[in-house]
Amino acid sequence: PVYNLVVAVDDHDMNISHVIRGEDHVSNTPKQILIYQALNWNIPKFAHLPMILGSDGKRLSKRHSATGVQSYRDEGYQPEALLNYLSLLGWNPGTEEEVMHLDELTAKFRLDQVHKKSAVFDQKKLNWISGQHLAGQTNQDILTGIRNIQPQWGQSKNNDYCSGVIELIKPRSKSLVELIEQSEYFFKDPEEYNRETAKTIWKDEAGIILESLRDKLNELSGWESAAIEAEFKNIMNDNDLALGKIMKPVRFAICGTVNGPALYAVMALLGRDSCMYRLDRAVKSLANS
Questions:
Q1: Which site in 10, 35, 73, 209 is 20 to 30 Å from 155, CA atoms measured?
Q2: In the chain, which ranges are continuous DSSP H helix?
């Protein structure tokens, strides 16, 4: 009883015109309306939003490992992306549009479009929307966001280089933290190679192929992605190699991983000296894998 009284008094004193809250408060609304009427106050408009459910169909709570907004911030999810996703839990603009900024959401939102059915929190959908926002941002804005999380990121390189890294990685990232993690090899040589991965892609001829490629690349007059790609194709044609036979071991040697952005663009950004060093080091390190 005290709760219903104090919230009615507080809302009246603050000139609240609309009370929008979860549907778990439906039972409180008629009680509060009676208090407004008894005190001869104007009754605000009430709206009740559907609850957010976990994947099991039950109300989202700590047992679902529900994450607070601060945790998403720490994981590199940006405010507009999180707000965009949350706005779509129980509402949509009546179109197929899903990626929207705050001004668009504000202009399109209508209470009569709020769903009556509870929404299920979908982490994969949040990741997708977050990735779409990230891909649409300028590299400078992303760099500023990254430096807010990790001030030392990319400090060993100039801003043009860092912008190049962001351009390559952002289409593959769902958050700033993931972008930071995926970009490590742009600033640091691989310290060691996963031996289990090496067994699957580093065949007997890999060292010979990489040495031949290294020699060809070292002769290039310029170091652009198109020229690098041309030498890859020459090596493949000369040795009758499938693309994967050369791309996978080269990426593994240079990046320490088997996945990533376009390899030619990665190599062009890393520079000739870095690529030659990493190829030589990988051939020596993985010779007996």
A1: 73
A2: 2-13, 29-38, 69-74, 79-87, 102-108, 123-136, 139-149, 159-169, 176-182, 195-201, 206-218, 225-239, 243-255, 263-270, 272-286
Q: How many residues does the chain have?
A: 289
Residue 61 corresponds to which tokens in the numbers above? 């709570």
Q: Is 278 exposed, middle or buried (0-12, 13-18, 19+ CB in 10 A)?
A: buried
| Greatest distance between any 2 Cα atoms in the chain | 91
What burial letters (b/e) apply to 149-174, b meaning 16+ CB within 10 Å?
A: beeebbeeeeeebbbbbbebbbeebb
- Cα separation of 260 and 68, whole Å? 30
In which residue are the tokens 């015109």 written? 17
d(CA 83, CA 33): 31
Q: In the 8-state DSSP scheme, what is residue 23?
A: G
Answer whether 172's CB lies under 8 Å from 261's CB: yes
pLDDT of residue 77: 95
What does the buried/exposed string (b/e) look like for 97-129 if buried means 16 or more CB atoms within 10 Å of the residue's CB? eebbeeeebeebeeeeeeeeebbebeeeebbbb
Q: What is the pTM of this model?
A: 0.83
CA 167 distance to own-chain centroid: 13
pLDDT tens-digit map of 118-169: 889 899 999 999 999 999 999 999 999 999 999 999 999 999 999 999 999 9
**Single-letter amino acid code for the residue at 134:** L
- DSSP conformation class of 91: B
